[in-house]
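seq/struct pair 1
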Amino acid sequence: MIPVAVELPAVPVRPARPGDAHALFALSRTFVASGELRSRPLDHYRARAGEFLLMEDTAPGGGLAGCVGVRDEGYGDAVLHNFCVARGSQGRGIGSALLRDALERARGHRATRVFTATTGPAVLFVRHGFAPAEPEQAPAAWAAALDPARGSRVYVRTL
């Protein structure tokens, strides 16, 4: 079998700014429609822009290629939320780049564990050292906000 080369991102991951709220909202809407993300109002992205890391699409008028929120939950825990890569940008290493930088940001918050929840197959998370976890292991407020009807599974990585 011939290995397939992964196209590496041409632009760096960067922290989101309040002015990125509309782009974060627009990127997320696609994943809300498919049930992969919870619906959140534009004001959520404005208020929490500082939690997000993003990568821009280098194509003219391309918008965002991907984003992930990293929130410090205290007591050595951080959570990843709203992790998404634009459908046309998937398979190019963008998710991996975002995840690497998100883990570095969590380390900067002195986190020793990082939690996430996903409705998908979690291949990217497992590849980056995450393992299945019980919601009871996660920060209580975050775990309580998970919607059981969506079928999210919790994963954790020790840093």
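seq/struct pair 2
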Amino acid sequence: MIPWNLLDLDTALRASWAADTCSPDNQAEWQPGNPAWGHCDITALVVNDIFGGDLVVGEVHHDGSQHGFHWWNRLPSGMELDPTREQFQHGQTVTAARVIERPSGPLPRRWEDYLLLRERVIKHLGPLPEPV
């Protein structure tokens, strides 16, 4: 049984996001006032560690062109959970959502960032389930 709730998870994530875990593509734009910026991929993996379910990815568009991808979770209940959605503060839209399979083993990109974020969340919540 999980001894905490979604509000506790949200608080732990917010306290754990930082410039050093932001995607290198977005690091120059990261600010404490928008801590979710550049954290969607590794945050979705931490949420997936805890709740399972599906990883969902969509295209981010702004001013008519694509500006990368956005990741979030679809829980086993079917509910979608997107703790980093608030990072889009300038009219960006997310389209073309699709479920993707979680890569097995270490990620080819951002593995160290994921491990660091996960470790910070553990400091707030206590032990998490082992990564899938």
